[in-house]
Amino acid sequence: MSEVLTVRGLCKTYPAFRLEDVSFSVAPGSITGFIGRNGAGKTTTLKSLLNLVHPDAGELRFFGLDPAEREYEIRQRVGYAGGTNLYYPKKKLGEIAAVTAGFYRSWDAAAWRDCLTRFALDPDKRLEALSEGMKVKFNLALALSHRAELLILDEPTSGLDPVSRDELLELFLDLAREGVSLLFSTHIISDLEKCADSIVYIQNGKILFSGALDAFAESYLLYEGPVTDSQRAAARGVCRSRKGESLLLRRADAGLFPAGGLRAPGLEEIMTHLEREGDEK
Amino acid sequence: MKLLKKDLRLACSPLTPLFLLFACMTLIPRYPILVGAFFICLGIFYSYQAAREGGDILFTVLLPIRKRDAVRSKYLFTAAFQLIGFAVMVILTVLRLTVLRGGVYADNPLLAANFTFLAFALLIFLEFNVIFVGGFFKTAYYYGKPFVAFAVVAFLTVGVAETLPHLPGLAFLGGVEGPELLSQLPLLIVAVIGYFFGTLTACRASERRFEKLDL
What we know:
The structure holds two protein chains of two kinds. By secondary structure, chain A is of the alpha/beta class. Chain A has two domains: 5-215, P-loop containing nucleotide triphosphate hydrolases (Rossmann fold, 3-Layer(aba) Sandwich), CATH 3.40.50; 219-280, no CATH class. Chain A has helices at 42-49, 67-77, 93-101, 109-118, 132-145, 162-177, 189-195, 213-218, 229-234, 267-280; strands at residues 5-14, 17-26, 31-35, 57-62, 78-82, 150-154, 181-186, 198-203, 206-212, 220-224, 237-241, 244-250, 262-263. In chain A, helix 4 (109-118) packs antiparallel against helix 5 (132-145). By secondary structure, chain B is mostly helical. Chain B has helices at residues 2-11, 15-18, 35-53, 56-61, 67-97, 115-139, 144-163, 178-212. Classes of the chains: A alpha/beta, B mainly alpha. Chains A and B meet through helix 2 and helix 3 of A and helix 1 and helix 4 of B.
């Protein structure tokens, strides 16, 4: 089966920021984490996918379809939820859902009722009365009730406590098992370790990596110990701590360092080192 | 129509229908009754405010619709309330010109409830649609400056409408007698045509601007 989403050469220029040649894809039934620090271009990219922002260049395909020609059909099959977006806070969940239902030909009232039970949502509650986690679940419930095949989620876990976050990530895993594809942006690395199959890593508007999460993690090593200038030059990022310096290096450069000081880094360590290097550039 | 239903159920402030009662200002004797049209627009403004606070625009454009339909539905929503208010004004104007004629309305130095009044009410509604709604859709977010601009123009319009019948040769604009009303009729017809075409043009311009807007 072809990719549910393909992005090729997406560019967008703002006075103080540029999104440059962003390319990646999302496989069917997969969870793709879209990571990068605040301001790296995650939201601009996601908004470009949803036609909320007009890219200067680039090509998008949803389910192999061109959104310029088949936007209506694509919108029926894609769900979006922003972690910080709160629609109609004074309205009851049931009322928002009733209005939303009218726009989707694939709206499934039984699926909506299932979601209410599954996420413990009360349709008579007002949106503003929900916790942050429940708000995200409500957005997911709307998307799942119109049988969205691809969920685009912008920072769905931001602002959630660790338990709610964990609960939500497990829900993502369940959805992926049911065949739903998820693309979610986050700057919380542990989210990826929990559930992502692949990642798209964006730094200063450019894609640094796009592919399997394990391949990304395995391509780096961390060295802690005394370093020479040539070793420092080979490093992809340097961080300092109480214990001294740590260097992130490509696995291919491992021969330049004493084996005793090398170890596999965690994702957070990789990102921290890469971002520090990006700052220095 | 689905979008209009959505606007009415999710984005409509309770003040919007409530402020339609200001159409009844038409019945206040010796009062600049045109401000009723301004207050009806103020009521509609509250729905734009509620829509902004409720993330209505983003919610709407994420639905499976054409982006420009979000603009069209807002103009439809606005015009629907304006025309309900206008219908009430028409009924009350007819009442003042017929069964309520004379009495407290006999000695009125201000603009009477007549066809001139109705024409200027439509002009104020059109100003709202062009200046406020058009201004709002430049950003789909900021509504303060467009509303202040509309308010200034609307009150200038009230001033002009109140002044015109006092100018030489234009006294017929303030009259309530048959021949005077007949002379006012072309003005009302022009206002009706101007309102519909002006609103349509403002809507099209807003659609074009909104299509290009990054949200």
